[in-house]
Prior knowledge:
The complex is a heterodimer.
Chain A: H1 3-17, H2 45-58, H3 73-82, H4 112-131, H5 140-151, H6 164-180, H7 192-197, H8 223-227
Chain B: E1 20-21, E2 25-30, H1 34-44, E3 50-53, H2 72-77, E4 90-93, E5 101-102, H3 118-121, H4 131-134, H5 136-144, H6 162-176, E6 184-185, E7 188-189, H7 213-224, E8 230-231, E9 241-242, E10 248-249, H8 275-281, E11 285-288, E12 292-299, E13 302-309, E14 315-325, H9 329-339, E15 356-360, E16 363-370, E17 387-390, E18 409-414, H10 435-444, E19 448-455, E20 464-472, E21 478-483, H11 488-507, E22 512-513, E23 533-536, E24 560-562, H12 577-595
Parallel strand pairs in B: 1-14, 2-3, 2-14, 3-11, 4-21, 14-24
Antiparallel strand pairs in B: 4-5, 6-7, 8-17, 9-10, 12-13, 13-14, 15-23, 16-19, 16-22, 17-18, 18-19, 20-21
Helix pairs in contact in B: 1-8, 1-12, 6-12
Amino acid sequence: MDRRKFLTILGSTVAALSSAHLFSATPSYGRKLGTLKKAYTFFTQAESEFIEAAVARLIPADELGPGALEADVPYFIDQQLSGEYGAGARFYNQGPFGATTPYQGYQLALTPRQLYRAGIAATDQYCEETYGKRFAQLDPAKQDEVLKGLQGIAGDINLKDVPGATFFNHLLSDTKDGFFSDPAYGGNKDMIGWKLVGFPGVPAMYMGLIGRNEPYHVEPVDLRSLQEAKAPVDEHGHVIHRRAAIPRQTTAPTSRPTDSSYSDDSRPEPSFAV
Amino acid sequence: MGKVFSLNIHELPEEKIMATTLKPVDVVIIGVGWAGSILAKELAQTGLKVVGLERGGNRRQEDFTLPGIHDQLKYDRRLELFENLSRTTLTFRNTTREVARPMRRHGPFPWGEGVGGAGLHWAGWTWRMTPWDFQIKSQTIARYGEKMIPEDSTIQDWPITYDELEPYYDKFEYTLGISGKAGNLKGEIQPGGNPFEGPRAREYPNPPLKRSYGETLFANAARELGYHPFPMPAAQMSQPYKNPDGVTLGACVYCGYCMNTGCEVMAKAVPQTTTLPVALKTGNFEIRTHAAVTRINTSGNRAISVTYIDGQGRELEQPADLILLTAFTWSNTHLLLVSGIGKPYNPATGTGVVGKNYSWHNALPYIPLYYDEGHIFNPFMGAGALGTVIADFQGDNFDHTGLGFIGGNILAAIAMGHGPLTFQPTPPGTPSWGSEWKKALAYYYTRTVQIIGLHDHLSYRGNYMDLDPNYRDIYGNPLLRLTYDYGPNERRMSEYLVSVGDKIAKAMKPSKYAVYGLDAHFNAGAGYGIIHQVGGAITGTTPANSVVNKYLQSWDVPNLFVIGASSFPQISSFNPTGTVGALAYFAADAIKNKYLKNPGPLVPS
Lengths: 274, 605
């Protein structure tokens, strides 16, 4: 497409709608936020030890590279729990509560914050009673055993106070969210999660690339690097991606994984909302 | 007719707090999404003074700029543009034997709020229904006999035909600039389009979007099997476009952040980029945001005003000559019920109509296909409605003799833009965490294609909406209660469509794939997301079988129109927005050219 013509047409649209800031050639924000100083604001010391140990098992550091712990996922979860999500601010929290069917979704009277606090305490209590140690002090194999027990796929751990599977599912889902969200939220440090799967983050214009059976190996870009004008952009403000310094072939698996020994037997969640 | 029913639970408290009454206006519109913005534009252009009441906040095009909109956590996971459920939600149960519980969090069908409504966060699949879809019951009986209609099904023909609605589909598609390829131009079948569609007067306003690599594999396999693949009709512009109202849209850049958010290059048609600016330009249309309507007030068989709570916490009463209920299916049904307009549906007796014939547009089947070396799909590139479709198994496009069900699905390979926060494909048998999960995801994130079907869902006697006896919203109104499960037709259809999906998946030669049909029961805690909800204020031929007539005018209160997917007697395979848009233009036309000249019932009851 003729880019000048495209811009002209868009320019007239902007005028028609009287909306002034559709395209900013320099999307940088006025003030630099500087280096974020991370600190836990929700987890106690004991809770942080639990979370750090747990996420290191859920997405471990291994031959493919760093995992959730190295990506600062515990901090991401802490910040999410400190805010709107942790308070259940956008959830319906009113009673009455009572018997439910398996098809009625989340029906606990607990906010995510309360669920984590109770779930961590109950899991640690279970570990103390079963192994004489808290979760964080167990060896990795034992930790995996406990996590599978909570999830309900191997053994079946009944926690005091909270349903173990509900707690585990939150922990797993929040861990994955922290691994793949924009680093602005405190996890996915150095875009570790995005680099693992080959996701470019903030997109470029892909009109010329869509439809090709070709890898797109670029350095991912996050919101902060754009807001601080550290990533090159075109005249529309779209990112111009740079070819990845290290070709992805050296970090990504090149052979398909072998079949697994156990299955969660859960239906995958499609990625669409139409 | 014309009786207005009242419910005991709405008796006024002892000390009545008086609402402030505002200056009357010509038209009040409740809900400013696609339907509301179309009606606002059409009526404001005639010189009428129109007020739009929107319970959510304003959402402006300039809120969707770079780079902030490229944030999956905010839009796809925390659902920024969707309902804040701490204020109101639904309650849900599978059957009347259970106690309904509130949907405390968004599940399989999140729904929107704010200016633009679902028209802002939508993916842009812009379908027409086929002539058969409008006459599902009579056509089924004519071809297969009465016995093909499942016993408890309450499906009914529309009072409108495809041919009547065709000019209004056309108008909606040209206003939005839909990208697609016609399959039937005035009865002539066109190569490359959907040969099963109803005849169109002219070609789509824009050519189809580009095709992703995964779609190419699907299209090739479908053709080998003798099916007829064609491009999804998309509300993303394949080229810059100026619509008949003089509004211009940009060309899609396939950035992949499309659904659940706005578009920074104005390539996705949403009310903010099409209908709203034109409506506002008239000077006759005012939008009041954070204006939550709690009642439509009636006197005899006339709607006299609406009561709403505004952003300053005031309770206001807005009188108007004409009231248009143009919100989402939930709110349209809910407001009729809490206002005591029309007789609530009772599933035990089958009497009453408000809340009747609820159905949901579910995915069936869902097929992830996993490939090995030699195939890269770059799932982060795409557009909300980028897809290649077959309709060979839709509606009555294949012989159902001996199959034991009616209807079918559209089946699409999609490239909607799938970031890793919401798209984490791993083959069946992979654990959901640990090193094996990590390795599988790292390998398959760029090597997976998704196919989904969207299927016809019949309406049934037991699937309906009413008011919940136990839970309330923040305004003190009872929540809407949904009673719903899959019916026998859907379960039998599932088995068949899974076998069709399996055949196509095999032909696409992946190294692994899985084909998922319906689960045992609808699960409000599940996470996949298709938001299309229909019914509750359905259209029909008489007050006994419907809430609104063919012009979507209330049988009970002729100066009230209820416009939206709430009017569908059942859902077809096709996403409802195209039909909602066409119905909005159809109703606008009837109001302008019939009702305003002679206010009163447009169809005798």
